[in-house]
């Protein structure tokens, strides 16, 4: 994976969440939906799993510094059923965390994650896989930064168009 792409994939979410912290119009309240802390935890856990899978595939020496990860690296790098499961599980966890979001955003993230999986295991060109990774990372970063609202505190009014449960 080219270093410029890695920098882009790290910088984009940082910039988006920095903009979210600095600009009052972000997240887009008109389109955003509240999530629970469990949802946010699922998104973070799934995203960490996806990043770990990617790093194990492209930069296994970084993961090797963590004791006991040799089997994980071999499973991911083996491109076997175990590798597929180790990709699908965190992807599904991310989608479970996004389940309260607008169907279009959830679908976009799902389709891009499927594209990553297909291009990873179909034996096609690496550049197509890298484009799929970029699309998935951007769709997830934009969705979480622009559309995911923090859980409402008890006593807060529900967001317009949403029940008091925040769903």
UniProtKB/TrEMBL annotation:
Annotated TM spans: 6-26, 38-59, 79-97, 104-121, 127-149
Top-level taxon in the UniProt lineage: Bacteria
Record's keyword terms, sorted: Membrane, Transmembrane, Transmembrane helix
Protein name, per record: Uncharacterized protein
Taxonomic placement: Bacteria, Bacillati, Actinomycetota, Actinomycetes, Micrococcales
